[in-house]
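Objective 1b of the project was to move from sequence-level analysis to a structural picture of ligand recognition. The entry below was assembled by the postdoctoral researcher (A.K.) and checked by the PI before modelling. It contains the amino acid sequence of the target and the SMILES of the bound compound, molybdenum atom.
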Amino acid sequence: MARNNHGRRNTPDRQRRRLLGGLSALGATTLLAGCDWTQSPAVQHFLGRTEKLTQTAQRLVASRETRAREFSKSDISSFFKPNGTIEPQTPAYQQLMASNFANYRLDVHGLVDKPASFSLAQLKAMPSRTQITRHDCVEGWSCIGQWTGVVLGHLLDRVQPRDNARFVVFHCADHLYGSARPYYESLDIIEARHPQTLLAYGMNGNDLPVPHGAPLRLRAERQLGYKMAKYIMHIELVESFADTQGGRGGYWEDRGYEWWAGV
Ligand SMILES: Nc1nc2c(c(=O)[nH]1)N[C@H]1C(S)=C(S)[C@@H](COP(=O)(O)O)O[C@H]1N2
Ligand SMILES: [Mo]
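Corresponding predicted holo structure:
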């Protein structure tokens, strides 16, 4: 498996340490405050709950760090089913496609200190990762494919999200089923900074084909297929979804699907 992990990964670790530090500080304060009254059933109950809370939080943090299973080349599906939009019809996308995406630029904006715009060549020059993973669609089918792309965490380091940036929103080119507004999706910062979360420009060793989201699509390997936005045109960092389309964080979420779509 080709690996090229230069992405700075100290930031999520720092976040995790801060959270765990905060939790143990909470525990310590509770214990320090303890005198005889700590023997009362109510306080015992509270302490028990605090401990349970700490365990739950730790388990949650741990599970959010687990990696999706990676496969070998021989596992790659001979046919990977394209789903949803397979070729955006907007004039803007059609023009990009006609020039083989030479004029494509990815804008990153919103709650960032350094908004930026990247060409495909610039994205391809950034730290990349190649991974073979299984894609699970809510419709019940799965396919295994190999993806190559920029580690999203690296891109975030470049634009420097502000402290109040909680979600990364991916705005796409296509209007699925003729919807008035384009497809969009979102991840929280933890999922966005997961080492297997990529903005992929390559599939199975070739350029990402149009049916699979050219020139750039999300791979968030621990999530269901609908989270993995294809045809990404710009990326926005936000504090909440209140001002984005239906306000639920994604095209399908606005139509009733779960925002958290962990597999
Ligand atoms: N822009 C956009 N992204 C999208 C979709 C879409 O219709 N438009 N469909 C989603 C769904 S439901 C799935 S299963 C995957 C399909 O990816 P694939 O076409 O590479 O199989 O893309 C997801 N991302
Ligand atoms: Mo899907």
